[in-house]
Amino acid sequence: MDLEEHRRENEEEDGTEATKYKGFNLSFYSHHLRNRLAALFPLSFHDSSKFLSKFSSLCFQTGRHVFFPRRRRKAYLPLPLPLPSNTLDSSVVRTESSRVYDVLEDIMGHIFIHLHNIQDHLQFWQPLIEASNARKLYFMIFERGPHAFLGGTAQMLRQSIVDGWSMQHLSQFASAYISERTVILSNLRRAIATFLAEVYMEVDRCGEQLVENPKKSFPPLLAIINHLFSNLEASIGHLHAIRQTGSSVEGSYSFPLVFEKSPKVNQEGSQWTNCEISDAINVIYKNLEKLDSYISVMVSKHQKPSKLSQYWIRHTCCVVGLSFCSLWLLRHSRLMGSPDIDNWIREAKDSTISFFNDHVEQPLLSIRDELFDTFRKRHKGVMEVEEVQLTANSLHRMLLDFSEQTKAQKFPEHASDQEMLEIVMDRYEKELMHPIQNLLKGELAHALLIQVQKLKLDIETAMLELDQILKANEINFAILAALPAFFLSLMLLMLLRAWFKQDTRAEGRGRIAQHQRRLLLVEIEKGIVQYQTCVNQGLEKDSQCMFGLVLHCLDRLFHAVEGHAKATGEWQWLRQDIIDLGKPRLQTEYKLIVISRMERGGDIFLSCEVV
């Protein structure tokens, strides 16, 4: 009997495990399909995901131990958790720690995405608040799209007819329009930043316990996070109370944010069961999904106009111009029986070919031929060494004969030309005393011929040296002839490089991107100082909000410098410095020292280099 009962219990357990496995597969594929649809149609994700959410909720009813799978995403600011130590049950610790990391990193990733999205829209609205009334009116009329342009114009005409023309009324309406969006987005950012700071501080407070004994310390942390969701619900809920009469945003507060509550668990016990932990994790992921839906709707209703809406007048003019050009081309095309376009194309083709031949091909061929001719004719010159040597030998023989006749003695074959030339000059000076007589009977004519030969040798020697100089610089002249084409190619490459690297974000590689990274450091430094000031004044909520904004800036910096720091070999110490800046229990003085060291030592922050 006992064996039969034991068999039935095993069968029930196997059935339960199979049901859990099926529930996990259904949940995984339903969420995968929803994420794919969200990536393809981000604007209609909230409406199109209702059916999939219902389908996913049915999947959760099939197994209690199923929770949302993690989504692939980029790397965010690391959690303030140390690495697990090598213990005997290290495999169990790593398994539990990986689950802890998965849940916490998913929470941080969702919050960082929302903060980045809200901050992007706030950076557009905040400068408009401080702008002049003329700039606000220009935005309201010309930078919100054609529908807003027509509606605003009609409203202005109705207002001018009823109450008369009043620029003050229009300015007040524009200021209220911009201020409402700024206030809503600022409150959302404050609530989410506070939630982020509270979660991060709780993780930092129990970090070592989460790594050493995650099975015992993770359940209390889940309970705290669920309580923080309740605080976030209360902080966002006051947005419904600040709605003004005649709001320019329709349906902004049509549905409140209501998170699911975690089931009541006996927290006095020593340990939660796996079922209770899975239920708490499921509640967290469902709350994250509700938060995603709520924030996406709120931000979409208060977001900045798209680029197409901001520059719709420019785009409209371009479309009108293209339409006129199309009509003009159609009038001169074959469709209307006109050969004008064919003739223009033929003339343009001939002109292009002629320009290419005259200004590109022929100069390049000339340079090529010049270079090859330089090397082919390098052995040929105006004066050769053999010719100069023949002239020198002839002069030597003439000097030797003259010296032997004059001195009446035998000179050696290797006698110095300089000595014999002195004999010739002495005799020449004596012969010049009686030039006519010595020209006919003396040695004057012989001496003159020797001097002519000497002059010929000097000229040939000079020409030989000049020819050698020209040969040595022929390649330089050829390079100078090719320099214009080289500089033209270099300019084209620089223009292409500037076009490819026109990314001005902090993740870019130009000087502007480098300046953005330095501004991020400045923003982090200001945030740390403001956080410490709020702590000293006892402003708990303000300090938590400021700390959350600092974490958001650190996440942006982490993502901006990761690729560059890995390429330059600075990533190891730079990553640790960014993590240290996010530790709430670290002294502010030390954080400021770290920021100063990053500015001085990091090549990716130096303004004198282009990364």
Radius of gyration: 45 Å
Strand % is under 5%
Biggest β-sheet, characterized? none
Q: Whole-number average pLDDT?
A: 76
One letter per element, helices H and strands E, the order comes to: HHHHHHHHHHHHHHHHHHHH
Shape category: elongated
Distance between the termini: 78 Å
Care to describe what's here?
The longest helix has 57 residues, at 444-500. Helix content is 76%, strand content 0%. With 611 residues, the chain is mainly alpha-helical. The chain contains 20 helices and no strands. The two termini are 78 Å apart. It is elongated, with a radius of gyration of 45 Å. This is NUCLEAR CONTROL OF ATPASE PROTEIN 2. It comes from Salix purpurea (Purple osier willow). It is a multi-pass membrane protein. The chain crosses the membrane at residues 477-500. Keywords: Membrane, Mitochondrion, Transmembrane, Transmembrane helix.
What structural keywords apply?
mainly alpha; 0% strand; disordered N terminus; 20 helices; 76% helix; 611 residues; disordered C terminus
Give a nutshell description of this structure:
The chain is mostly helical. It has helices spanning 2-40, 45-62, 90-129, 133-142, 146-162, 167-205, 207-212, 214-237, 274-302, 307-310, 312-331, 340-376, 385-407, 417-431, 435-440, 444-500, 511-536, 540-568, 571-581, 588-601.
Topology record:
Blueprint: H1 2-40, H2 45-62, H3 90-129, H4 133-142, H5 146-162, H6 167-205, H7 207-212, H8 214-237, H9 274-302, H10 307-310, H11 312-331, H12 340-376, H13 385-407, H14 417-431, H15 435-440, H16 444-500, H17 511-536, H18 540-568, H19 571-581, H20 588-601
Helix pairs in contact: 1-2, 3-6, 3-9, 4-6, 6-8, 6-9, 6-18, 8-9, 12-16, 13-14, 13-16, 14-16, 17-18, 17-20, 18-19, 19-20
Membrane topology: Multi-pass membrane protein
Pfam family, one: NCA2
Subcellular location: Mitochondrion membrane
